[in-house]
Amino acid sequence: MKGWLRQDGRKGIRNTVVVAYLVECAHFVASKIVSGFPEDDVQLIGFPGCYPNEYAARMMDRLCTHPNVGAVLFVSLGCESFDKVRASEAVSASGRPVKTLVIQKAGGTASTVQMGRDWVHGVLAQVAEVPRVPMGVDELVIGTVCGGSDGTSGISGNPAAGKAFDLLVGEGAACIFEETGELIGCEEIMAERAVTPALGQALRESVQKAERYYATLGYGSFAAGNAAGGLSTIEEKSLGAYVKSGDSPISGLIKPGDLPPRGGLYLMDVVPDGDVRFGFPNISDNAEIVEMIASGAHLSLFVTGRGSVVGSAISPVIKICANPQTYRNLSEDMDVNAGDIIEGKRSIEEVGREIRDLVVAVASGAPTKSEALGHREFILTYKSFEPIGPACLPAA
Amino acid sequence: MIGPFLLLSAADNVLVARESAAEGTDVPLEQGSVMLTRPIPLAHKIARRDIAEGEKILKYGMPIGIATEAIPAGAHVHVHNIRSAYTPTHMLQDADGVSAAVAQ
Predict the structure, then answer these.
(1) Is the Cβ pair B90, A150 closer than 8 Å?
(2) What is the pLDDT of residues A170-220, one digit of tens each?
(3) Interchain pair A305, B43: CB under 8 A
(4) Would residue B88 count as lying in a domain?
(5) Residue B90 domain flag
(6) Assembly ipTM
(7) Which of A39, A125, A168, A213 is deepest in the core (most CB within 10 A)?
(8) Considering its fold, how many domains does chain B have in total?
(9) Domain around B40
């Protein structure tokens, strides 16, 4: 395995040029710039809101200085409140080439698209010069998420992902699982796995917070397709989702954008702090994937039963299909057939090993199915978080 | 367990379909054989034994909800006869008013 070496010592498994719009009004222009580079690794991200949000600003910083990112072009309309000067300084301080284009100053749509494409063209040659150096599994950060879940997710795909997590944590990688709203009912058994009692209490409280938050909203993290697929309650979905964390001790609790300080297993608390202000914690699976990427995830494991086809900007997504019927229907989108476990063809251990080996192959440059198909989904919305508490990352 | 239904934990009072099972299928249970009165899709659950109203439903050896009515052995266990101990389950309704979660 080799990675692109960044100034902070982290290594990337991709070398992407990111074009980021800073308000929805600049989205079209930014996407036109990206569409000029169909053969290059140039990807679109952005924040749609015009009002300021500390969380979104921090997420944008983390994403634009992610080890998989080589250079950043910001596209601003000009009058939005996003602090583009501070964002540009943060990227510049990370040693990456950065440029900000302001549509209102650049002469409009066509002029900004031309200027943006000219800059990207030049910077592609520049990022190609970034050195690739040897990289170990212990330098990887890996996230896991499940979406489009059904009753098979918890008996094949998620246990196999959990087995892969056990192998990867054993090799020194940092592994992140998340969505505390889908751990409702698991808080007590999860707390027992914490490396300290104080962390156990923090894990318990994060799930209790999620329960309160979703209760206020009136809907749990449970979609109609979950029920059609055989799941009856949030706690049934939770128990199935929980097993993708594997059996390792839980080393810490992080929030979106916090970087795991060392290898081990981490829970990401994705439910906002304080009163309900901006609606649902994660309006779709990609919001959770983006949050794990902001916490440094080089790639994500996505377990699906009903069948999701998404990928992500910045970090590749490995799709693990839990349901053998879905796999046959959507095999062009699926990287791993965990449905073999249900049909008795392979064991959880065998599929877990396949996932671990695929992680190394993708980190070495092999494209995932969604990556090869061109999926680069991205979503970032409003949230508010307080910093993590002292119990969340116990001293080793 | 061999056959179309899986017992995930010894403590469970439900079995999970490892393949879709047709209406009329005979399923051997501890208390005797029962015949499925409706098709059970892949990954849906049936009662392993008679379950009383108010009893906890156990899957993976852990509670996943509470029976809202008496459920006879072999019957489909789903959103129509169990509820969450946490937040309510919402689902789509088909045009004819039948829950998409139950009708397959």
Answers:
(1) no
(2) 999 999 999 898 898 899 999 999 999 999 999 999 999 999 998 888 877
(3) yes
(4) no
(5) no
(6) 0.83
(7) A168
(8) 1
(9) 5-83
